[in-house]
């Protein structure tokens, strides 16, 4: 079992990382949201981590949010965006959120990230994790979860 002190550190680091990456890299400003009514057909990406802590981070992006992110950074219109660009954007964002989270959570210890894995277009699954965030932006929504345990 993970202590309440650790859970609070996770909550703070994960939330701060998600907000920072979305704002600084994609110019997307998030607000807390609800899983209720979250669109189907979400682009899902997962990245694992290992070291003194092991676990995974899963991020679900609505199609509208991915377009908004890509348009803000690359200036591409909807007709110019193919699946490769969507997948690469979702994977890179998830990777940056994971790296930022782990640097904030355990700055003194080496924690290794796996290569982000695109899980496909899915319905939002019941997110199992120590901490879950569902956020809304000007265009689109996202949900992100971190699950972890102390390695033995």
Task: Describe it.
The protein has 152 residues and is of the alpha+beta class. Helices cover 38% and strands 29% of the residues. It is built from 3 helices and 7 strands. Strands 1, 2, 3, 4, 5, 6 and 7 form a 7-stranded antiparallel β-sheet that branches. Helix 1 (4-26) crosses helix 3 (83-105) and helix 2 (63-74) crosses helix 3 (83-105). It starts with a helix and ends with a strand. The mean pLDDT is 90.
Tell me the layout of helices and strands:
Layout: H1 4-26, E1 31-32, E2 42-50, E3 53-61, H2 63-74, H3 83-105, E4 112-113, E5 117-122, E6 131-136, E7 141-150
Antiparallel strand pairs: 1-6, 2-3, 2-4, 2-5, 3-7, 6-7
Mean pLDDT: 90
Shape: globular
* DSSP strand content: 25-35%
Task: Classify the helix fraction into a percent range.
Answer: 25-40%
Q: Say how many strands there are.
A: 7
Q: Helix-strand pattern, N to C?
A: HEEEHHEEEE
Secondary-structure-derived class: alpha+beta
Radius of gyration: 15 Å
Q: Total helix count? A: 3
Sequence stretches where pLDDT stays below 50 over 5 or more residues: none
In angstroms, what separates the terminal alpha carbons? 13 Å
Tell me about the largest β-sheet: 7 strands, antiparallel
